[in-house]
Every structure is written in C-alpha cells, then in structure tokens.
Amino acid sequence: VQLQASGGGLMQPGGSLRLSCAVSVAPEFTLDDYAIGWFRQAPGKEREGVSCIDNGNRNTYYADSVKGRFTISKDYAKNTVYLQMNSLEPEDTAVYSCAADEIGYGSSWYRGTYNYWGQGTQVTVSS
Predict the structure, then answer these.
(1) What is the C-alpha to C-alpha distance for residues 3 and 20, in angstroms, rounded to an integer?
(2) Lesser CB count within 10 Å: N end or C end of the chain?
(3) Strand 48-53 with 60-62, pairing
C-alpha cells in the first residue's frame, strides 16, 4: 500500500483547503479494505489524530478540535481519501499525513499504529 498526501498550502483564517490522499493498493483490494486516517503534527507538538474513515462499515471519526469543520470522504473511482477543511484556524497549522491499516481501530482510531504512511503536506493558517 502506498499513500501520497497533497493539497496543503497557506490559507487565511476562516478559509478552506481540501487535502487529498491518493492510495495505491493491490488489484484484489479496494479502499474499503483499509482504515484511512489523517494525522497532523505541529512544531514542538506530538502527532495527533485528525480524522479517520474505517474499513468495512465506513464509520467516520473526528478529533474534537475539528468536529463540524472538517469532513473526511472517499472517492472510489480515484482511490483517494479527502479531508475537506473549512473554517480554518491558526491552530490547524501543521504537517498533515495520511495513514492506512488493514485493521479498523474503531473509536480508538487515533491510537492506532497504522502500517502504512504517506509523506506529509504542510498546512499553514495565517493572516
């Protein structure tokens, strides 16, 4: 499994960005076979879970800090997982990475070890 994150950039507070995570899987597998998570790490801070879409049941989860502002979704035709980020705040500034695992962690998604990671994309929210 290979993941490639993109879509980061500089945005003013209150603006929107959409991050993309292109997922390459073996032909016999689909996006639904993997839990896909978005994580972020700001300078001097630990990595934190932002959102996750589970395998199988496709349940979605969000960190409290982004609920109501961020939306995770899958595009099966493009094998891509999106993170739509609205009402951005300076506190959202971080390097965002996507990760995948065959195991769905459910409500403990943010503590999962995730076997596969993509490179990060920088999101900066500043006026």
Answers:
(1) 10
(2) C
(3) antiparallel
Q: What angle do CA 121, 38, 88 make, to 5 degrees?
A: 70
Q: How far apart are CA 70 and CA 46, in angstroms?
A: 20
- What backbone phi and psi angles, to 5 degrees, belong to 51? -165, 160
Choose among 62, 50, 60, 58: nearest CA to 76. 58
> How do residues 16-47 score in pLDDT, each as one tens digit?
999 999 999 999 999 999 999 999 999 999 99
> Which pLDDT score is estimated for 110?
87
- Nearest alpha carbon to residue 6 among 125, 120, 89: 120
| Inter-residue contact 41 to 123 (CB < 8 Å) | no
Q: Regarding beta strands 70-75 and 60-62, do their DSSP bridges make them parallel or antiparallel, or are they unpaired?
A: unpaired
Going by C-beta distance under 8 Å and a sequence separation of 6 or more, which residues neighbour residue 104? 35, 54, 55, 56, 57
